[in-house]
Specification:
- By secondary structure, the protein is an alpha+beta fold.
- It has two domains: 66 residues, no CATH class; 82 residues, Translation initiation factor 3 (IF-3), C-terminal domain (Translation Initiation Factor IF3).
- Helices cover 38% and strands 28% of the residues.
- It is built from four helices and eight strands.
- Strand 4, helix 3 and strand 5 form a beta-alpha-beta unit.
- The chain is rod-shaped, with a radius of gyration of 29 Å.
């Protein structure tokens, strides 16, 4: 019981409740309850409204969601890809870039394809040439038998094509 009283007084010490009349002509009278929290300095001028804090947290969550909306879409290709299939993958990448996603092309090499790097460079140069107006490309990276290249959206393009 003593512990419960302690928390009650502690709550009253930290938080202060304020009633503001919304419309005092109605019966029963309409009031708005405001919770004020004391700051570390404990002066009356530095009280903050609970609703303002809620709205500020809501704005921060929305900004966080906007900044985290950069998912990476992966498109897998091989060095033996046909020209038409490559154009289809490039069109998919354009749609992903217009929807504000990052696009990662992954080219896997098998057997003798590992020695023929000119074909890989030709494929990635064609991809970067086609996506030049849509996004910025990072340098081509090779780790083992996997070659990757990442594309980010340019700031100018904002319209989504269908």
């Amino acid at each position: 019981m003593m512990l419960c009283k302690f928390f009650y007084f502690f709550f009253l010490y930290i938080f202060t409740i304020d009633f503001k009349y919304v419309n005092c002509f109605y019966l029963p009278k309409l009031c708005r309850v405001n919770f004020f929290r004391l700051s570390e300095s404990n002066d009356a001028a530095s009280y903050s409204d609970g609703h303002e804090k809620y709205m500020q947290e809501k704005k921060m969550k929305q900004l966080k969601l906007k900044s985290e909306n950069k998912t990476v879409k992966q498109l897998r290709i091989t060095p033996r890809i046909a020209a038409n299939d490559l154009l289809i993958k490039i069109n998919c990448a354009k749609q992903f870039l217009l929807r504000r996603h990052r696009v990662k092309f992954i080219l896997t090499l098998k057997g003798r394809e590992y020695t023929n790097t000119e074909n890989v460079k030709r494929i990635f140069s064609k991809i970067s040439e086609e996506l030049k107006s849509y996004g910025n490309s990072e340098s081509m990276r090779q780790s083992g038998n996997v070659v990757t290249q990442l594309f980010n959206l340019k700031a100018k393009i904002k319209k989504i094509e269908n």
